[in-house]
């Protein structure tokens, strides 16, 4: 029997599935969930090795997409819109590929369906290890340990949402070692067969995850695709410009 991901289900109506990115959890897209659940049923999940979901040595997009599919099956949800940010965007694309009939819309937040070739998280991983090795007894000392490696306070605050008090020692909910072992799988990508599902790529105007040079890869894999740029936003576009992202998302869903 496969393990079921931890999930949260709110609201009613057409189901929108929210899928977080690397080192995140189901609360990361909460700013979208809070508004969307007023008109839709919103399913938020903790991906494997994240949040309160199970840990596994295996991390790849086929297995992560299958995990989410099993939750949809468990809840008997037969038609849905997928919204994924960053790594969660790739999970959403893979799930749309597996569930072509049931995916009504696909929205990818600041991620390209390409294999990235440069490491982007070495400072983050060093900060996570500093916490694991330091065995901090308070959240503030965990943040101090991270600060030696992670310059941006916003990144430290984001990561700290996955700290918990484990018998007096602050520990990570996500599986740091499995992420390291599978890091190139996470950066990687296997092209999908051309998908005709209505798809929207939303780019943070200042982010380097979704670039003009990726356009040919996108057009090869998606035949019904639009793009929207959120000006003055980076990779965390939904946190920086929630209203603009929400507007782009709802306009796209309602235009069908």
UniProtKB/TrEMBL annotation:
Keywords: Hydrolase. It comes from the Bacteria. The keyword Hydrolase applies. Pfam families: Abhydrolase_1. GO terms for molecular function: hydrolase activity. Its EC number is 3.1.-.-. InterPro entries: AB_hydrolase_1, AB_hydrolase_fold, Epox_hydrolase-like. It is an enzyme of class 3 (hydrolase). Residues 15-242 form the AB hydrolase-1 domain. PANTHER family: PROTEIN ABHD11. This is Esterase YbfF. It comes from Vibrio marisflavi CECT 7928.
């Amino acid at each position: 029997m496969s393990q079921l991901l931890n999930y949260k289900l709110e609201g009613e109506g057409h189901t929108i599935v929210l899928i977080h990115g690397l080192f995140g959890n189901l609360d990361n897209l909460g700013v979208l969930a809070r508004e969307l659940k007023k008109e839709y049923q919103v399913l938020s999940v903790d991906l494997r090795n994240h949040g309160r979901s199970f840990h596994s040595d295996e991390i790849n997009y086929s297995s992560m997409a299958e995990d989410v599919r099993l939750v949809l099956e468990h809840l008997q949800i037969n038609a849905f819109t997928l919204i994924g940010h960053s790594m969660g965007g790739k999970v959403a694309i893979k799930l749309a590929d597996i569930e072509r009939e049931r995916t009504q819309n696909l929205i990818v937040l600041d991620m390209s369906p390409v294999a990235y070739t440069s490491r982007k998280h070495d400072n983050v991983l060093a900060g996570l290890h500093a916490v694991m090795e330091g065995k901090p007894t308070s959240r503030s000392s965990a943040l101090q340990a991270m600060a030696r490696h992670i310059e941006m306070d916003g990144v430290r605050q984001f990561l700290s949402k996955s700290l918990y008090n484990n018998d007096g020692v602050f520990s990570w909910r996500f599986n740091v070692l499995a992420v390291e072992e599978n890091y190139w799988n996470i950066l990687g990508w296997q092209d999908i067969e051309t998908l005709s599902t209505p798809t929207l790529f939303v780019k943070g105007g200042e982010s380097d995850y979704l670039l003009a040079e990726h356009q040919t890869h996108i057009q090869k894999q998606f035949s019904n695709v639009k793009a929207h740029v959120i000006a003055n936003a980076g990779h965390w576009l939904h946190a920086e410009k929630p209203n603009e992202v929400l507007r782009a998302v709802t306009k796209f869903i309602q235009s069908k």
